[in-house]
Design a protein that fits this description.
mainly alpha, 0% strand, de novo design (two linked rop proteins)
Length: 125
Amino acid sequence: MAIKSFRDLRVWQVAMDLVERIYRLTKVFPRREVYGLTSQLQRAAISIPSNIAEGHTREHRKEYLQHISIAQVSLAESETCLEIARRLGYSSVDQFVPLFEQVASLGRQLYSLRNALMKREADNR
């Protein structure tokens, strides 16, 4: 299947699924966290597919690589916020396990995409 849009990228689709799951999870966070951890986690999660999309839409591969790097940083931030929420007992452990698995999978996908882009960049030199 040819990739015509960022929407066709599996990594973007998985990132969007993660955002959805994080929004559902944060609904049960304490109300006092609305402007704290809830907001921080949601913004970090949104940044992942947003940067994948923006990078894919850029004209130059170097810019694409930069946006994938930002998506990786946002994923690490999201994982850290999830770990904080888990440690504070903001939801059941059963809800966190699949999220951490999805984060790890997405991290591997972003790493693979970054490596593929870097290889293409090196091949074009």
